[in-house]
Amino acid sequence: MSINFDNYQNIVTMFFEKSKTMKTKPYLWKKNNNIFESLSWEDVELAVKSIARSLIDLGILKGDRVVILSENRPEWQIADLAIMSIGAITVPVYTTSTTADYSHVINHSGARCMIISSHELCVKALPAVESSNDCKNVIKINDDGKSYSNPVNILQWNDLIKHQEKDNYVFDEEIKSIKRTDTACIIYTSGTGGNPKGVMLSHGAMLSNCTGAQILLKKLLEGMDEIKFLSWLPLSHSYEHTLQFFTLGIGAQVYYSEGIDKLVVNMGEVSPHFMTAVPRFYDSLHTRISQGLKKQGKLSQTLFAATLRLGKKKYNGEKLSFTENFTNSILDKLVRRKVNKRFGGSLKALISGGSALNFEVGLYLTALGLPLLQGYGQTETAPVVSANPPEKVKLDTVGPLFHGVKVKIADDGEILVSGENVMNGYWNDTDATSKTLIDGWIHTGDIGEFDEEDYLKITDRKKDILVNAGGDNISPSRVEAKLDIEPEIAQSMLYGDFKNYLVAVIVPNKDFALNWAKENSKDQNLESIVKEDDFNKIIKEVVNRVNKNLSVIEQVRKFILIDHEFTIENSMMTPSMKVRRFVVKDKYGDQLEKLY
Predict the structure, then answer these.
(1) What's the CA gap between 466 and 279, in Å, rounded?
(2) CA 385, CA 404: separation in Å to the nearest integer?
(3) What is the pLDDT of residues 199-228, one digit of tens each?
(4) Phi, psi of 456, rounded to the nearest 5 degrees
(5) For the range 12-21, what are the long-range contacts, defined as Cβ-Cβ under 8 Å and sequence gap of 24 or more?
(6) Phi, psi (degrees; rounded to nearest 5) at 34
(7) DSSP state, 579?
(8) 54 with 160: CB under 8 angstroms?
């Protein structure tokens, strides 16, 4: 399954070459009527050519932008490859975004066409299309018979494929003209500090990342005749977007999950070998396993505790006695195999990226036998900069650098990145580009260092560092990670720039709060629970427990409890699950100030 990604000038050449060798083998899988059904490589190629010809008929030219708005499904990749096949540029957007977000992306990118999957998404997106200057054509994937009053030309996906199957138009010349340095996609960043910026990624940037991924996973991939990936992280996220070209290159089968609610069920059905996710998923996995354990009998709890103790000991490189080694091998069969089986039983790697993985969560899951590899990157770096190799995982780091990536640490500790994986710049934003991409080096805004084995460690976000009244620099993410791992707390955000001490916004764990209310005969709604003095005392005890493991300047003295989580819908989280601190501060700033 090995492939030399460096041999290809562009992604679409790689796809068509791979399709010729794979032919009728299954490639993309999707649930239909509760059963996973596949499209072969030939099926996908035919659809790619049909949609590409349809885009040409609509007047889409090389360099034009086409927006994709869809959940993860085979048509997503087909649309992506079709757009790139004619030298046009893919602009992915999140299904969770608002009409205003779509309007910004469509107008800022100057998109000329939009591909939308469903009626629900059409309702949100068509007003944005209608108000745009250039985008007047929509290709709708689901053929559900719905009609719209918006003055927009809507074409049906299936109709286009049937019509184009009879067309013998060949666009080989268009493909040959696409260079490695040409922009393949514009991915709009999450916008933790305001409006998102359009990151231009070249074919070469993503292909170079694929080379790095293949080197990283080489030993795990050796001898595998069949490779299965489960895709659930949005394809509009640069992480999953680049990954799809890696899976394409190695000839893997891709199963599209039905969503976060059915993710564990899908893992059991598919038995994937690999899956990527952001740390928030692993946090919830840790909570789910921990809460489920409380309902088990004493024997199960004892075995579980022993598994964690010995697993952590082994990870830390501590020598196990003969008895411990024997016990640990028994626990492999009694506990770890059972845990792995819940996730399909075939996992070779769970890859974490997008933001910092909580060390305790990582250690917990590793001790249970889940093969967790943490990496690091940004949309601007296509996206991976470094990742932990399966041969030696160091959970407090983000691993050695990917092949072809260069990193240097600036005098102030900022991580600077250079290499083919670096973006072409921000679309239509020369000022932002000149501030981020300086002399070929991306200024990441992350603070980091290398350890003695050249594993990269991320210590904080440059702009998120709090400076207290005494001039001390404090890492809010470090403290928040320690708060968020507590079972009583779901989320937190620190506050305290130029103050004498730190305070926090805390979101209690909903299940814990409702159970507390039930046991104490209180109203079972969060709005009233967070106002209860007795409940606040419990959270105070939790905060005090965390404070014992923090330095004096890091300790949280006071907090406010709120009755709803930070979410994408309330704009307190980005689509890639990062907290928008400025939005939280804007909403709760007055209450936080009153704590001083």
Answers:
(1) 23
(2) 9
(3) 999 999 999 999 999 999 999 999 899 999
(4) -80, 135
(5) 12/81, 12/84, 12/85, 12/175, 12/178, 13/175, 13/176, 13/178, 14/207, 14/245, 14/248, 14/249, 15/45, 15/48, 15/81, 15/248, 16/45, 16/175, 18/248, 18/249, 18/251, 19/44, 19/45, 21/251
(6) 65, 15
(7) B
(8) yes
Instruction: Report d(CA 56, CA 73) in Å as an integer.
Output: 23
Residue with tokens 């720039």: 497
Question: 241: which 2 tokens?
Answer: 């977007």
Find the DSSP H helices in 343-494.
Answer: 359-367, 430-436, 476-484
Cα 221 to Cα 41, 227, 233, 390: the distances in Å are 21, 8, 22, 11
The alpha carbon dihedral of 100, 106, 109, 115 has a sign of: positive
What are the angstrom distances between the C-alpha of 491 and each of 30, 214, 283, 482?
A: 33, 35, 11, 10
Q: Give tens-digit pLDDT for 99-118.
A: 988 999 999 999 999 999 99
How far is residue 393's CA from residue 402's CA, in Å, rounded to a whole number?
A: 15
What is the token pair recorded at 89?
């540029």
- The per-residue pLDDT for range 487-501, each reduced to its tens digit, is 999 999 999 988 889
Tokens of 222: 């050796």
Find the helix packing angle between 322-331 and 298-315, rounded to 10°: 120
Could you give the 3-state DSSP secondary structure of residue 22?
Answer: helix
| Secondary structure element (H or E) that encloses residue 373, with its range | strand 372-377
What sections of 420-525 are H helices per DSSP? Answer: 430-436, 476-484, 510-519
Tokens of 340: 């792995």
Q: List Cα–Cα distances, 270 to 110, 224, 250, 254, 262, in angstroms.
A: 39, 16, 19, 10, 12
Q: Which two tokens stand for residue 184?
A: 């393949």
Among residues 372, 376, 373, the alpha carbon closest in space to that of 385 is found at 376
Tokens describing residue 41: 């490589």
Backbone angles phi, psi at 528, to 5 degrees: -85, -30
Q: Which two tokens stand for residue 116?
A: 């939308």
**Residue 310 token pair:** 């010995």
Instruction: Report d(CA 36, CA 28) in Å as an integer.
Output: 10
Phi, psi angles (nearest 5°) of residue 167: -90, 130
Alpha-carbon span 430 to 260, nearest angstrom: 37
Is pTM beyond 0.70 here? yes
Integer Cα distance of 235 and 233 in angstroms: 6
Q: In the numeric block, which tokens belong to residue 429?
A: 């934003």
Confidence of residue 502 (pLDDT cuts 50, 70, 90): very high
